Amino acid sequence: MAKDLFANLDLNLLRTFIILNQERNMRKAAERLFVSQPAVSKALQRLRDHFDDELFVKTHHGLRATEKAHQLADALSPVMDDLASAVNHSAEFDPAELDVTLKIAVSPFFLAGIANQLFNAIRAEAPNVQVQLLNWSKSTIQDIVNDDIHLGLNYTINHAPKEIIQKHIVEDRFKGYLRTGHPYDKDCLKLGKGHGILLGST
Length: 202
Description:
3-stranded mixed β-sheet; 6 helices
């Protein structure tokens, strides 16, 4: 059975190999890789040990690739290009390219107040997206975990499951109003630990 050379290969070495093959010069390869020449030499030695071949031989004009190095370069170059393209593309996000149905659960406490603005803001950035605004319910958290709902807007959720990522987006302030002469004479009404409503007279 042939030896599996890929199983224990450090993929970082393949990038070093490709750059060495392109430059045929240790100093230039080190500059492109933003490492020292000894680091490139060490990587080359690991490549030689792994593939059991010299790969690059020193000459008066730089490095000369062996037949094995030529074969590897021909096979690896398009694969590495495809890998770089896939990684770079995955980092890009253009909402204008989305063509999906986006399900957003919103707390009923402020659904009426933000629904229109939220809908218009999404459509301005992602005109091809179909938006479904849903009332937040008892099952919403699990629906988000199951990817049945894509986003949720609500107040801070204590003890949220680890699959949920919470991002703070806005502060909300409430006011309570009492008639003049009301027996409650304090400036703040406590609703819970650390929370309160500012009171004002009419």
